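Try this one yourself first.
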């Protein structure tokens, strides 16, 4: 097992780091910060946890910037690059 970028809806939200025979999640986006440091049996289990968390949080990936999702592609790219 090696380090891996974890994405949600095509946006990197963190990385998985081997922790014995499991994986530890390091969050890099605020909407998934509550999952930071969590230990999961596999990357698939981590991805399910992220999907469930995002579905239950009621917020989009951009949190209070939900309007950015409906913005033009160029504006969205500029936001992601920042």
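Now uncover the answer:
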């Amino acid at each position: 097992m090696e380090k891996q970028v974890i994405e949600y809806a095509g946006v990197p939200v963190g990385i998985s780091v081997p922790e014995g025979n499991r994986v530890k999640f390091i969050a890099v986006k605020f909407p998934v910060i509550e999952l930071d440091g969590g230990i999961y049996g596999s990357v698939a289990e981590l991805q399910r946890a992220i999907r469930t968390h995002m579905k239950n949080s009621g917020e989009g990936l951009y949190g209070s910037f939900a309007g950015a999702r409906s913005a033009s592609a160029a504006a969205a790219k500029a936001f992601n690059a920042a």
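Discussion: Strands lie at 4-8, 11-19, 22-27, 39-40. Residues 64-82 have pLDDT under 50 and may be disordered.
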